Amino acid sequence: MKLPVMIQVKSREAFKKRKKASKMAVDNLKNINGTWYVRVAIPAELRPAFDGKTEFLKSLKTGRKSEAMVLRTKDLHEFKNRIASERRRLVVEQEMSSLSLLPSAARFDELFESLEEIKAGLAEQKQERKKDFEESDYEDIHALEKIEGHRNFLNHLLLEKQALGEELNPAQAELLNELNEFEKLPNKSFKKAEDLLEKLEKSNVLGSFSGLVNNEEEKEQVKALIAEPAKVVKKHPLNEKNFVEFHKYEVKRKVTLRSIDRHVNRLNMLKDFLDKQKFELDYESVRVFLESLDCADKTKTQYLCSFNAFYKFMFNDANFRQKFLINPFMNHAINKVRRGARKEEVRKAFTKDQVKSLYDNAVSQGKSKLADLIQLGAYTGARIEEICQIKLEDLVTVDGVYCFDIKQSKTNAGERLVPIHSKILPMVERLKKDSKDGYLLKTNRGGKYGVKSKEMSSDFSAFKIALGYSKELVFHSFRHTMVTELERADIKNILVMSIVGHEVGGSLSMTFDRYSEGPTPKAKKEAIEKVFFNI
């Protein structure tokens, strides 16, 4: 049956309104007179705590929605935290009276989240009691009633224990004794009453958790909260114990120490941020942390790589899986250069003329180590660290071909035999003869992480900058040069990859990685001899 036209129009309008409201709820944005505002609705039951407000609303001072979507994150997180905090406070307020009677099966970690709010509530109550005290001709009626309530509760508990043939625990017995002594005092001063009441409430409300804790760490948390609640922060898995275990795990996986330390340093930065802001570990808090970083988007992506490595490690733990089933480090939008768009800073290959210029300048300036490094880079296409790690024992003859046996590389494919070009053979023999430490090139010891190329890399960078070379031309550019020269000599791709140590991708990976031993040293020697630089 076809609806009347008027009803159809109204239905369409209602649908549009619902769709618009739904979209607004998802975005948490509201446009007022061309300016975008971040908006979060306040649940009806919490509005009295916020002076009857129905929503949090704050101008983002922009008319562009795309910009507003980025700017809203911090305020959105703050508004949601305030709502969540108030909701917890209400729950605590309702349960404080019965908290000490909670069954021992209650989960400590769930209860502990509300402890800070309880302590804050006690401080607020003290101010209210002081006001009541001043308005009642300085008679602390409120405190005396509360103290009597605690006394009745402990006496009732004592009778129950005695009926079971048990005793109060020492802390409860001490409290009951103090209450009985207080009752005997002829003059119950305000200060004495308030101090005793605060101690009772801390002990009965907070101290009731002592029977629920499972380990020493939880006991220390309760003690710390009772002593100084401001120092207690949200509990999250970013802690020293987990970092140590994560470090061990990465070492077993043969990740480099340098990479592991970077992971842990980044995790510590996130930990300090969460502790300072008193944020829980969730998607929004990670988002705010990333936006607080003053670094390039590429660096932020590296932070997320470190965090995800930690998440994968922690996911082996059942308790962690239960609490963090959804990875808070996933789906963070980081600006990336669109595929097909031209990148401003891409490593380029040195031309043959540039290789000659670099070498000639190194020789004329008396930089013999750099001259040797340039020759090795140009005629091997190896990474600078691979070259600096070559030992005399890595100069090997295989099938009659004299080669560099590169054993330490950043990838599996990087571990390869590179034939020694006839043009650099005299230099290699000279370096071999002059070596005092067993390495082909004399470099530093490599420091904590064994990175022997650090000094040479810095020297080359300063050298090429002084000659006016751009950022796109770095030592790694020699690899691009080698690939370019081999391709121009019509060398097969599999040979090129084998010489420079590139992974074989796509459909070829199964055939060559699993079943093939790769090109022979002789074939690689014939290919590399077709590359020539006038140096």
Automatic annotation (TrEMBL):
InterPro entries: DNA_brk_join_enz, DUF6538, Integrase-like_cat_sf, Integrase_catalytic, Tyrosine_recombinase_XerCD
Coiled-coil region list: none
Residue span, Tyr recombinase domain: 345-529
Keywords assigned by UniProt, alphabetized: DNA integration, DNA recombination, DNA-binding
Similarity comment: family membership: Belongs to the 'phage' integrase family.
Designated name of the protein: Tyrosine-type recombinase/integrase
